Amino acid sequence: MNKDNTLFAVAFEDKAPCQELIRIVTGDESLVVIDNKTQYTIRNVENHSVTLDLIVKDSRGKKYAIELQKKDERNAEKRIRYNNSLYDTLLLDKGVDYCELPTVISIFVSKFDVHKTGLPIYHIKMTIEETGQTYDEGRQIIFVNSCNDNGSKIARLMNEFSNKERISSEFTHISERVRSLKEELGGEVIMREKMEALAKEYAEYVVAENDIDYVRKMLKKGYPIAEIAEISPLSLEEIEKMKAKVEKENRTKKSRYLKKSLEKVFARYFRKSKKS
């Protein structure tokens, strides 16, 4: 957990700066935040787990999933796609109609320009190719970066975080919160405590991921579920789900192996047929 992420996590634990941030990014000045959580981990025992830096719910039921990315790993689009898919699984209870699935706006904040066209913000929506109409499935993506300063409000906001020396007073709640965390002694204490807490959470997350990998290896080696459950912190239900997935993977691998073997047999047969 780096200092930028810690600053973000502490600054936006409060609703006021969080609401100001979402209003500026979306351009919706009437938006009202009713719930927000920082460093929200979505655990997935079967696949890759993810941590979102901030999740928000507004008074109209819309959800916002915010992620910070410092290093350009050339995977932003696929990363957002995967994170969205996991987040969606938490938003609809079993038996509830799909129309109850809320609108989700994913906001990807980075120090680099994902699209490399010189803008500080990009709004992504799906369209119908033949008609040009917007295809609204309740999902939108917004890319924001701090490397392109065109003098706009969103560019000035990004400077609020990237500039370690200058702290403006333009953004009422964000500026005051960032100033207190950067300059006041109490802010330093809060930052240090938060960093320690996040480091502890991350260590626990790594241990949990290692437990998942260990259980998966035991299942692949054919250990009974009952024996695994005795030594694993995972629930019996979680282990059974993992077993079903491992068995499916094994069947797929076996099917591919048989297919390749048959292809080789047929290839040899046809070669012999041509010679004779």
Helix percent band: 40-55%
The number of helical segments is 8
CATH architecture of the largest domain: 3-Layer(aba) Sandwich
Rounded radius of gyration (Å): 24 Å
- H/E topology pattern: HHEEEHEEEHHHHH
- In the sheet with the most strands, the strands line up as 1-2-3-4-6-5
Number of strands: 6
- Counting structural domains, the number is 2
Low-confidence runs? none
Specify the overall morphology. Answer: globular
Assigned CATH class of the largest domain: Alpha Beta
The CATH topology of the largest domain is Trna Endonuclease, Chain: A, domain 1
Beta-strand residue percentage: 15-25%
- Main structural class: alpha/beta
Our measurement of the CA-to-CA distance between the termini, rounded to an integer number of angstroms, reads 69 Å
Commentary on this structure:
By secondary structure, the protein is an alpha/beta fold. The chain has two domains: 3-183, 3-Layer(aba) Sandwich (Trna Endonuclease, Chain: A, domain 1); 204-275. Helix content is 50%, strand content 16%. The chain has eight helices and six strands, in the order ααβββαβββααααα. It has helices at residues 3-11, 15-26, 76-88, 153-162, 172-183, 185-220, 225-231, 236-275; strands at residues 33-42, 50-58, 63-69, 104-110, 121-124, 139-145. A six-stranded mixed beta sheet has the order 1-2-3-4-6-5, with helices on both faces. Strand 3 (63-69), helix 3 and strand 4 form a beta-alpha-beta unit. Helix 5 (172-183) packs across helix 6 and helix 7 crosses helix 8 (236-275). The N and C termini lie far apart (69 Å).
